[in-house]
Design a protein that fits this description.
The chain is α/β, with parallel strands linked by helices and about 130 residues long. About 30% of the residues lie in helices and about 20% in strands. The protein has helices at about 1-10, 65-70, 70-85, 95-110; strands at about 10-15, 20-25, 45-50, 90-95, 115-120.
């Protein structure tokens, strides 16, 4: 199951720190949007990047309208990625709609996250 999640969301891990930063892109983007940002953190943090189902190099066959018709489905993906990688005390960095997705994941499992960083959030997604 762990490999299914890693493949489904094209999860990439880099960096060498003991703390983890999870970077979540907005809709219409993929993890490539962070390519100029994440290298600045790789000496001090473990970096986790991924693609939401339907974006980038994710497994499009994993798309199910019942799951992804609401942001909770994407939040569940975030939680499953964290579980698959056995992450804790995650610094979540979200852009655009990912801010609300991250907030939903935090509501579901607040102890999983140590910090939430929101770039360009909008409450219109809720």
């Amino acid at each position: 199951m762990t490999m299914d999640i890693i493949k489904r969301n094209n999860v990439q891990v880099s960096g060498q720190g003991s703390e983890t930063m999870l970077f979540a892109h907005g809709f219409g983007c993929d993890q490539n949007m962070w390519r100029f940002v994440t290298p600045s953190f790789e000496d001090d943090y473990q970096i986790v990047q991924f693609d939401y189902v339907g974006c980038g190099q994710s497994d499009i066959s994993a798309y199910h309208s019942g799951r992804y018709s609401q942001l909770q489905g994407y939040a569940q993906d975030v939680l499953e990625i964290c579980s698959a990688l056995e992450l804790k005390d995650v610094i979540f960095v979200g852009h655009s709609v990912s801010c609300m997705i991250g907030l939903l994941a935090h509501i579901e499992e607040p102890d999983l996250f140590s910090s939430m960083v929101f770039i360009g959030p909008s409450a219109r997604y809720v």
